[in-house]
# Entry
Amino acid sequence: MGLLGFAVYRLVGVFVLSLEFEYFWYHWLVMAAGIIFMAYSEGYKGFQKAFSPRVAARTLYIRENPTLPLVLFAPLFCMCFFFATKKRKIVAYSLTVGILIMITLFRQFSQPWRGVLDLGVVVGLSWGILATLYYILLAFMSPAFDVSPEISE
# Structure
């Protein structure tokens, strides 16, 4: 949550800096499209439907099965970097590489384009933070929470 929150904080700053530039109709159009796209693809499909419930399930798993490696490396465990199914690890590492590539590419854009695009990311990440908090609360408070932590054998 700290990493996501810090990313949102930094990206909001980039967006605010972009407001010093003149926005034309096409900037607003791209911004609206970016917000809608990132809210749906990153926020809803990525976080709410996939990542957040699994993070909550793996967090609950640590609570019920605490071991030194799991507790020390809880964030990496919760993000499926280890003790996960082969498919889940491939997805985790591929997404991480893809995100790093996108960050590198977005940093090359000049203002106001960088701020325009980063605002969509802020929306997606903010949705992700809220979804993750919701699912973690649900996992710890509801006996009916039934999401697989996808632990490897």
